[in-house]
Design goal:
Layout: E1 3-5, E2 12-14, E3 51-53
Antiparallel strand pairs: 1-2, 1-3
Bound molecules: zinc ion.
């Protein structure tokens, strides 16, 4: 599965791990994360600006 990093801070959304604090259980694909998701760490970076990690 893929990982997506916030370009503003070090937060990474890992599809394998999900983000249970945000309501996404492990295995939740990035595509299913809400369109209005903002980085939970810095709070300013929208989902669309996250960068996919190779
Ligand atoms: Zn961030």
């Amino acid at each position: 599965m893929d990982r997506y990093q916030c370009p503003e801070c070090s937060y990474i959304y890992d599809e394998d791990a999900g983000d249970e604090d945000e309501g996404y259980p492990p295995g939740t694909p990035w595509a299913q994360v809400a369109k209005d998701f903002f980085c939970p760490d810095c709070g300013i970076m929208p989902k669309e600006d996250f960068e996919k990690l190779a």
